[in-house]
Write a structure and sequence with these properties.
Aspartate Aminotransferase, domain 1, binds pyridoxal-5'-phosphate, three-stranded antiparallel sheet, single chain, elongated
């Protein structure tokens, strides 16, 4: 879903029934449209199974095949933007070039965050340069909402963490940005830490157990 067009996905090496992604992820179109690569046999079995009217993939596929039309008003501007985004994707050098740029963003992010004593949740060896979860500071003065508001005031939006057991937050590396924008985000994060009184916490507390 999140890494399509950046990480290599070879259907001959990794057998899958379906691959779903959206216009606004690594293809860098505007948000608004999802698409699916799916085995025809799997799709056939979906007939009459959807519990949703709007998201009925089989019905959409069938209707498109028979009439050349979307079942409902198509998001025309999203389609035009996606088509342009794919042109830009190819001009940039396709998947390898995109991965390279995201990797440069990721490197800049992880290095800068380490300077601010933030530790990523995953080991670097298994971390994709798409979205990075960081351990939240353990200090009592840390509060995600306040941290979020302080970053947002400087033009950057953080994602809340998704883990239930650990306090984390997430930073995205994808989108039409480069290392320069990541440096600006790091600056915003450092200033937000200053606002919360967080700049002096001990890095050792955030080191991984191993
Ligand atoms: C991005 C994402 C979504 C949301 O897709 P949009 O079409 O951009 O709203 C849903 N699920 C997962 C796992 C995602 O990564």
């Amino acid at each position: 879903m999140s890494s399509f067009a950046a990480l290599p996905i070879d259907a001959q090496k990794i057998r899958f029934d379906a691959l779903i992604s959206a216009s606004g992820k690594c293809l860098e179109g505007v948000p608004g449209m999802g698409f699916v690569f799916i085995r025809s046999a799997v799709l056939k079995n979906c007939e009459g199974q959807s519990q949703s009217l709007a998201m009925d993939l089989y019905d959409q596929f069938n209707y498109m095949k028979q009439t050349g039309q979307w079942r409902f008003t198509p998001p025309t501007h999203v389609l035009v933007a996606l088509s342009d985004a794919i042109d830009q994707f190819e001009e940039e050098g396709g998947q390898p070039a995109r991965l390279k740029r995201y990797h440069s963003c990721y490197k800049t992010l992880i290095t800068g965050m380490a300077r601010l004593s933030f530790q990523s949740f995953l080991e670097p060896s298994i971390q994709a340069p798409i979205i990075v979860s960081f351990h939240a500071p353990a200090e009592a003065c840390y509060d995600f909402q306040a941290f979020y508001v302080a970053c947002r005031a400087r033009g950057f939006i953080l994602y809340p963490g998704k883990l239930t057991q650990l306090e984390t937050f997430r930073v995205g590396c994808i989108g039409a940005i480069g290392a320069m924008e990541i440096e600006q985000a790091l600056q915003a994060i450092a200033l937000a830490m200053q606002d919360l009184g967080l700049l002096s916490w001990a890095p050792a507390a955030h080191l991984r157990p191993n």
